[in-house]
Amino acid sequence: MDSLVELFCAVDDFCKAFVPFWQQRLLASGARQCQRARQLSLSEIMTILIHFHQSHYRHFKAYYCEHVLKHLRAEFPDLVSYQHFVEFIPSALIPLCVYLRQCCFGLCTGISFIDSIPLKFCHNRRVSQHKVFGGLAERGKTSTGWFFGLAPPGLQ
User: Fold this and answer.
1) I need a labelling partner for 91 at 20 to 30 A (CA). Which of 4, 41, 44, 153 fits?
2) Are 58 and 50 in contact (CB under 8 A)?
C-alpha cells in the first residue's frame, strides 16, 4: 500500500498545481454551468486509473469491482459504484494526459521504436478510400504484404 500512497501524493500535488492553471485557461460558453461536488476527488480518480495500469488486471471492470471496491475501501472511503466511476473518467482525461506527459515519461533519447501491424482499413483494396493522411501517406510493400503509411521525415 505504500506505493499507492506515494502515487496518490504525487498525483495530488500535481492536481493542486495544475487544476487552477487549467481552469483559468478554459473557454467559457457563456451558459451557466453547475459544478456539483463529486464523492471522489480528481486526484483519487487519477490514482485509481494509474494504479490499474500498474496492476496485473487486464480489464478495468474486474480491477475496480474485484480489487478497488473490496480491498481499497480504507484508502478511498467515498468509493462509488463502477458505473458511476466510469462517468468520472472523461473529466480526468486531460489532467491525466498532462500528468503522464510531465511526470511519467522519460526524456527522449533520439531513438524511437515503431511497431507496425497490418490493419484491415489499410488493405490494398481500400487505399483509395483512406483520406485521413491524403497527400502525406504513401503505398509500400514489404515481405508481409502491401501497406499504406507515413514515411519518416527526410525519406519522402
Assistant:
1) 4
2) no
- pLDDT reported for residue 39: 86
CB atoms near residue 40 (< 10 Å): 19
Q: Give the tens place of pLDDT for each residue, 96-107.
A: 999 988 887 777
Q: Tell me, what amino acid is at 43?
A: S
Query: What pTM, to 2 d.p., does this model score?
Result: 0.65
Asked if residue 46 lies in contact with residue 85, where contact means CB atoms within 8 angstroms, the answer is: no
Three-class SS string for 80-123?
Answer: CCHHHHHHHHHHHHHHHHHHHHHHHCCCCCCCCCCCCCCCHHHC
Residue 156 has pLDDT above 50, yes or no: no
